[in-house]
Amino acid sequence: MTQIYMDMVATGGMPEMVFEYILKQNGLDPQKDLSIDQSIDFGSTAAAFAGDDSADFTVEFEPSATALEKEGTGHVVASLGVESGYVPYTSYSAKTSYLKEYPDVIQKFTNGLQMGMEFVREHTPEEIAQVIAPQFPETDMETLTTIVKRYHEQDTWKENLIFEKESFELLQDILEDAGELSRRMPYEKLVTVEYAEKAAE
């Protein structure tokens, strides 16, 4: 049976839910067709994978995935982000009362994020790596550039911050499939895109 390492997460952790959703979409049963080891601390799965011949695959965040390749102990074979589609992995939430009282703050915040999206779209991986390097002091420039190139080639970054209904429904599909969602919610009730649309103009 195929052995896969994943970081230690509570039942329903987002990385595993996305991973298992992709497996099921490709005809694999996560409970019957493979063995997922969740006993390893976050941040230690790459080292465990490199030092243990019993695991066939590991699910890694960057820079761990690229580090395994550089060390010659692993190869990136697929991107969960590519395989799953645009999962709204990061979103910003605010109370309705805050939106009503401080719409200018929300708009400025959203405009700032949109500027970041535009910077990524308009600059090379090398330039982006230079800018983000201070946030990753433990990662060398070559590795950072490789990661940014990979994200660029995979179309990881959207052009704007608009949270489309299709992505919202995909998120609910994943949560429902994992048994973590008892009732679906209407997109219109939870999502507002007016600030993102204005920022993208």
From TrEMBL:
Compartments (UniProt record): Periplasm
Broad class of where this protein is predominantly found: periplasm
Keywords of the record: Signal
Family classification: Belongs to the bacterial solute-binding protein SsuA/TauA family.
Protein name: ABC-type nitrate/sulfonate/bicarbonate transport system substrate-binding protein
Lineage: Bacteria, Bacillati, Bacillota, Clostridia, Lachnospirales
